[in-house]
């Protein structure tokens, strides 16, 4: 090991800084002990550097590695899946610090650091995280530079300047590669996120589920309409259809429960209606279903439709997902109801909620038609003292009897549940629909942002001659929920986002905060569509816009031209004449001095020393004596002291010397 | 068959080596001062750079398999960083000037100190400039606050004569260590290698006086030490009458204690001894006289150095011995 291979202290400090910076984005996903490993490793290595402790022995290291493995298995249950593998990588990254002796160890550590940056992208490609990760790349590169500055034995923050410059120089070419590099499909299957929670509406609904989802301001999806945005009250985003009531909870029909003949949707008549076209950008849910307005069709490959008119994908949505759909809002659905379907949509568990069932049957008996019965039930909800609340009381046995006749405080799922129960009890086919209602229109880019607190449950009833008709019993209790959204509906209760006091969404009333937030949302949308979601389709579009046609030659030309455009200025900056030799710059200044004097008839003899020339000038032109002698003194100082001057000091003195030239009497 | 193949491969390699030598000679000719420019600087990925390439591949595969655009972006950013780093690595050597300063003489098997000056041409910090000759130790230089630095390299020398250290390697991997930038410079710097001192039992091939080393020679006041030219004022007892009788010039016998008297180290004193050995003996005696702080002169074919003493004189004498048969030293 030569002296050059040792680690300068500056490098060690930068390595430790970058380690902690790389750990930060993973914190929320990691067990606490991993953070402790980082702290212990950093302390230990610092102690080694100060000569107080020694490097761990081989057996200690082996013990630490095995302990790390064991702890990860204990924390995650297994080693498969992305989270435990990343945790393992991060632990190894920390422990590697304990055997950081030579430069080649540092290479391993820092290259691993670059890869850890990649692992954080597998969990999120949010614009803020990406900017932060860019900063960590600068830090890792700084450590790499510090590694090659032997003898720098004090921490120097200024080391970051060169790597930041280099990365800035590399950036434009990176963009070219990013947009030109062909995107191909996965080459093999890779471990996926196994420990992330499923988000959004679940395929199983008990009273209280949606109200707890509505505590969150997280984004569910963003919609961009091709035409004008429909009214808020028309935006019912259907996600799931619950047809089965079982053990106090609603769920969808399982695939095995549906006869083969009933699996395909019956295409409705939509001849005289222009569809709404829109694209939805979904945040990952780890679920299969997609959200759409009724009645939706999508020509996108990989998207399927069900018999209850929903869209879904066969694979769970692991990453942000964009799909395009068209919806016919007025198309009649299932004008003819099959007998199997009718039975399925009428099924009720025996003997539950007897008072509610009785009430429904009584009300149906006094109504002339199913439609009239629907109105009667809604009217009843509206008349009685029902309260729309995010904090409904817990319900026990026969929950709907308890809700309808005692507590009368509920969220949308309570009303939908009670309404569908009453419909089915009275022999009207009905089902609960879960999804989102409404959304916030972002005026910056005309998108509709749908958040978790827009989660909603409503009902569909089947009426003869009309097919499935949407009925929202919540609207009978709290019409402002449908018209203006959840915040307005909860204005008196004050429970909107009560658990997240810092959410920007709570400050929608403050104009500039709101504008800032909307701009950020618009930027995020653009980022997610154009950068995170950039795919081969957009690539073709871009290239066609640029060249008119896509040919290999164009790729090569574009890449070469941009390479030259970027690298030539960099080379010029680095190697160009601008950075003259110090000695030359000083001497040039003296030559200018001689030229000035030559114009006044005083020319320096070849080989004449500056001091004697100054003396001769003083004799020849006394008016110039003081100026010439001062200049010569300063020039001599600069010419003979320049080796010992710091760059900044040198430039200052040189500038002062040049300034003197202009002050010739 | 095999051996023939072997020799032909060896020959080919030798040819290639010679060819490379010629090519280098044309490209970077020997000079006392060499300024590094694109003709003289070579650049290739270092081992760490190849490892970095593997890392890029792994990141790219991750990006493809996870369909993760930010991972693509990072792979491309690091790839273009590598491209930009070639310019920065090159800039760390470009514009540097190497000046040959001096090489100290040394005895065979010892180390000579080669001194160089490394000077930067542009106002830019240069880090981790590693200098080494193939056999020497190495030195690492930073040029950050100063414009030039003096470098001393220690190099074991071979046999008597001139020692050419070959081409000097100047390399650096700064700033990222992913690329290695280097040059081989022939600085036209060589060291004098003195003869290996060799004890001779006596200075004269004649009288059997004991003189088994410098220490012994100092002892007696009348120990015979050698012959020198007769000078006016020498005692008659000192005159080498036998030689005079044989028709030689008038010579005095020199005795060890006669410190004021100067001695001649003569080529002819070691008659019949092979030249290299003669030189070694002469070297030994020159050192012995120097140690005793006495005057001594040197007479070898084609060169005569009058008696004197001191470090400079010793160097003159030893250099003359060192370069005997090579070329005359520039004195």
UniProtKB/TrEMBL annotation, chain A:
Residues 404-475 form the Transglutaminase-like domain. The chain crosses the membrane at residues 12-41, 62-79, 85-101, 106-123, 129-148, 160-181, 555-575. Keywords: Membrane, Transmembrane, Transmembrane helix. This is DUF3488 domain-containing protein. It comes from Kineobactrum sediminis. The lineage of its organism: Bacteria, Pseudomonadati, Pseudomonadota, Gammaproteobacteria, Cellvibrionales.
UniProtKB/TrEMBL annotation, chain B:
Keywords: Membrane, Transmembrane, Transmembrane helix. It comes from the Bacteria. The chain crosses the membrane at residues 48-66, 72-91. PANTHER family: SLR1927 PROTEIN, SLR1927 PROTEIN-RELATED. This is DUF58 domain-containing protein.
């Amino acid at each position: 090991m030569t002296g050059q291979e040792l680690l300068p202290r500056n490098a060690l400090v930068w390595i430790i800084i970058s380690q902690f910076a790389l750990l930060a984005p993973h914190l929320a996903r990691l067990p606490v002990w991993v953070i402790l490993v980082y702290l212990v490793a950093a302390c230990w290595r610092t102690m080694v550097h100060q000569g107080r402790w020694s490097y761990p022995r081989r057996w200690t290291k082996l013990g630490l590695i095995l302990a790390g493995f064991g702890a990860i298995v204990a924390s995650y249950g297994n080693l498969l899946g992305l989270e435990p593998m990343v945790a393992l990588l991060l632990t190894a990254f920390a422990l590697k610090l304990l055997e950081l002796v030579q430069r080649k160890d540092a290479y391993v550590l820092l290259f691993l650091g670059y890869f850890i940056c990649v692992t954080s992208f597998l969990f999120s490609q949010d614009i803020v995280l990406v900017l932060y990760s860019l900063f960590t790349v600068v830090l890792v590169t700084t450590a790499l530079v510090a590694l090659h500055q032997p003898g720098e034995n004090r921490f120097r923050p200024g080391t970051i300047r060169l790597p930041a410059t280099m990365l800035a120089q590399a950036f434009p070419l990176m963009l070219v590669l990013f947009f030109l590099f062909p995107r191909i499909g996965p080459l093999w299957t890779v471990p996926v996120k196994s420990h992330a929670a499923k988000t959004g509406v679940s395929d199983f609904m008990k009273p209280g589920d949606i109200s707890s989802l509505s505590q969150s301001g997280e984004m569910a999806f963003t919609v961009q309409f091709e035409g004008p945005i429909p009214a808020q009250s028309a935006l019912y985003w259907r996600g799931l259809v619950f047809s089965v009531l079982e053990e106090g909870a609603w769920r969808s029909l399982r695939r095995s429960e549906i006869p083969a003949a009933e699996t395909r949707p019956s295409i409705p008549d939509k001849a005289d209606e222009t569809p709404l076209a829109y694209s939805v950008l979904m945040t990952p849910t780890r679920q299969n279903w997609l959200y759409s307005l009724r009645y939706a069709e999508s020509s996108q490959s990989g998207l399927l439709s069900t018999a209850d008119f929903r869209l879904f994908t066969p694979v769970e949505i692991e990453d942000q997902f964009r799909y395009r759909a068209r919806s016919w809002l007025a198309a009649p659905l299932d004008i003819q109801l099959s007998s199997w379907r009718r039975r399925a949509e009428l099924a009720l568990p025996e003997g539950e909620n007897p008072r509610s069932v009785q009430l429904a049957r009584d009300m149906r008996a006094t109504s002339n038609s199913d439609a009239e019965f629907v109105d009667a039930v809604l009217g009843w909800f509206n008349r009685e003292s029902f309260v729309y609340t995010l904090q409904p009381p817990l319900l026990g046995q026969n929950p709907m009897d308890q809700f309808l006749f005692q507590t009368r405080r509920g969220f949308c799922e309570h009303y939908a549940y009670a309404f569908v129960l009453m419909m089915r009890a009275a022999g009207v086919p009905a089902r609960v629909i879960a999804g989102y209602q409404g959304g916030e229109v972002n005026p910056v880019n005309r998108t509709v942002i749908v958040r978790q607190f827009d989660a909603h449950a409503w009902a569909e009833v089947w009426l003869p001659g009309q097919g499935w008709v949407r009925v929202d019993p919540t609207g009978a209790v709290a019409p402002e929920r449908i018209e203006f959204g959840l915040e307005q509906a909860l204005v008196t209760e004050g429970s909107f986002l009560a658990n997240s006091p810092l959410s920007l969404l709570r400050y929608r009333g403050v104009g500039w905060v709101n504008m800032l937030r909307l701009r950020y949302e618009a930027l995020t949308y653009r980022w997610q569509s154009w950068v995170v979601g950039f795919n081969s389709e957009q690539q073709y579009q871009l290239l066609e816009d640029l060249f008119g046609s896509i040919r290999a030659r164009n790729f090569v030309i574009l890449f070469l031209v941009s390479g030259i455009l970027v690298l030539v200025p960099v080379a010029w900056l680095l190697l160009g004449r601008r950075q003259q030799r110090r000695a030359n710059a000083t001497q040039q200044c003296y030559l200018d001095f001689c030229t000035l004097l030559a114009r006044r008839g005083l020319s320096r003899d070849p080989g004449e020393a500056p001091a004697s020339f100054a003396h001769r000038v003083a004799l020849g032109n006394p008016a110039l004596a003081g100026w010439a002698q001062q200049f010569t003194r300063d020039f001599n100082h600069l010419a003979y002291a320049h080796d010992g001057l710091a760059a900044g000091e040198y430039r200052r003195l040189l500038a002062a010397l040049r300034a003197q030239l202009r002050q010739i009497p | 068959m095999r051996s023939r193949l072997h020799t032909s491969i060896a020959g080919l390699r030798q040819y290639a080596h010679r060819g490379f030598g010629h090519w280098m000679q044309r490209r970077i000719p020997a000079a006392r001062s060499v300024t590094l420019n694109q003709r003289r600087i070579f650049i290739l990925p270092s081992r760490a750079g190849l490892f970095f390439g593997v890392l890029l591949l792994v990141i790219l595969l991750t990006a493809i398999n996870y369909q993760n655009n930010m991972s693509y972006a990072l792979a491309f950013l690091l790839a273009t960083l590598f491209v930009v780093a070639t310019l920065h690595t090159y800039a760390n050597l470009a514009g540097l000037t190497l000046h040959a300063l001096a090489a100290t003489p040394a005895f065979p098997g010892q180390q000579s100190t080669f001194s160089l000056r490394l000077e930067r041409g542009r106002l830019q910090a240069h880090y981790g400039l590693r200098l080494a000759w193939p056999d020497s130790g190495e030195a690492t230089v930073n040029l950050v606050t100063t414009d030039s630095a003096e470098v001393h390299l220690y190099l074991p020398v071979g046999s008597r004569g001139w020692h050419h250290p070959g081409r000097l390697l100047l390399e650096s991997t700064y700033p990222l260590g992913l690329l290695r930038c280097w040059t081989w410079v022939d600085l036209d710097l060589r060291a004098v290698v003195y003869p290996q001192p060799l004890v001779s039992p006596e200075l004269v091939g004649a009288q059997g006086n004991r003189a088994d080393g410098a220490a012994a020679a100092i002892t007696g006041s009348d120990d015979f030490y050698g012959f020198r030219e007769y000078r006016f004022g020498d005692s008659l007892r000192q005159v080498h009458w036998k030689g005079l009788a044989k028709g030689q010039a008038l010579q005095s016998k020199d005795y060890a204690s006669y410190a004021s008297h100067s001695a001649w180290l003569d080529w002819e004193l070691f008659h019949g001894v092979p030249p290299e050995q003669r030189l070694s003996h002469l070297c030994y005696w020159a050192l012995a006289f120097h140690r005793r702080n006495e005057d001594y002169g040197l007479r070898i074919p084609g060169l005569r150095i009058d008696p004197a003493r001191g470090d400079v004189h010793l160097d003159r004498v030893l250099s003359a011995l060192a370069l005997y048969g090579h070329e005359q030293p520039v004195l």
